[in-house]
Amino acid sequence: MALKNIIGIDHAVVMVRDLDKAAENYRQLGFTLSPRGTHSAHMGTGNYTIMFDPDYMELLGVLVATEHNAPARAFVDRHGEGIERIAFTAIDSAAGAEEIRARGLTPIGPTDFERPVTLPDGTISAAKFRTFMWPTAEAPGGVRIFACQHKTRETVWIPELMKHANAAKRIRQTLIATPEPAQDAAHLGRLIDREPRTEADGAVAVPSGGDRADFVYLTLEQLGRRYPGVPLAGLSARGGAALVLISGDLAATEKALGPAALRSGAAICVPPARANGTLLAFVAG
């Protein structure tokens, strides 16, 4: 039985050392970023979001060390910047947590938190969330998973934040480099009740649900063959990940990326050393 309260990838979390420097870097790559958010005190983190439809990216940094952000701090200390976790959209986080508990897993949460949001008209509102995480040890390919229930979607998916000079529209795939792609794909499949499928180059994909982006587990060698000519230096040492983004206009993408752009086959890429440990590959919609 598929999980009833989880409906596919919601957002990818890129852990960074210096939140404001990372934000400026992504602005230089043609992304529109939200104003900086500061999470509830027990979270100890701040963020910038890069909004697409129906998903998004999140640049996340630790502002104050807390028990809650200890795994994120450990990831950066050991492996460097990069995609540290992936969120699913939760219809109901409390019910979703009970679903995985019924499968013998102990969820972390559900946890409620919020951050203030400055709306385009200058007024202040709040983005409110309820999340739960799979156990920290359950991290296929070194990337943790959690689920996020958006209680105030209108303060997150703000139309003005969804238009990007680089023409990014949505996430098509999350690629996770690992020495054991089949093993890690099977692990994720068990955690979310989805069936892995092997792709033509031997990589293994796991649908995340609905029309949302797939997870794809592959070796570093396979990742390199998919994007020849793109240096992988700077990719996180564990769970090194890439995002394939759908572009509405590849010419606009290339122009906005400027000197960071590298053509590789049908894709226009930003190497991980230029994108805080994450390979970005833009492809036609």
Explained architecture:
The protein is α+β, with helices and mostly antiparallel strands. It has 6 helices and 16 strands. β11 (204-206) and β12 form a beta hairpin. The longest helix is centred in the middle third of the chain and has 12 residues, at 181-192. The radius of gyration is 18 Å and the shape is globular.
Question: What is the secondary structure topology, with strand pairs?
Answer:
Elements: E1 6-15, H1 19-28, E2 37-38, E3 45-51, E4 56-62, H2 70-79, E5 82-90, H3 93-102, E6 108-118, E7 124-133, E8 144-150, E9 168-177, H4 181-192, E10 197-198, E11 204-206, E12 214-218, H5 220-226, E13 241-247, H6 250-257, E14 262-264, E15 267-270, E16 279-284
Parallel strand pairs: 1-4, 5-8, 9-12, 13-16
Antiparallel strand pairs: 1-5, 2-3, 3-4, 6-7, 7-8, 9-13, 10-11, 11-12, 14-15, 15-16
Number of discrete helical segments: 6
Low-confidence stretches: none
Question: Which class of secondary structure composition applies to the elements?
Answer: alpha+beta
Strand content: 35-45%
Terminal residue distance? 32 Å
The whole-angstrom Rg is: 18 Å
User: What fraction, in percent, of the residue positions are helical?
Assistant: 10-25%
Q: Tell me about the biggest sheet?
A: 8 strands, mixed
Order of helices and strands: EHEEEHEHEEEEHEEEHEHEEE
What is the total tally of β strands? 16
The oligomerization state is single chain
Give the overall form. Answer: globular
**Which strand order spans the largest sheet, edge to edge or round the barrel?**
2-3-4-1-5-8-7-6
Average the pLDDT over all residues and give the rounded result.
Answer: 94
Organism: Bradyrhizobium japonicum
Protein name: Catechol 2,3-dioxygenase-like lactoylglutathione lyase family enzyme
InterPro entries: Glyas_Bleomycin-R_OHBP_Dase, Glyoxalase-like_dom, VOC_core
Pfam family, one: Glyoxalase_3
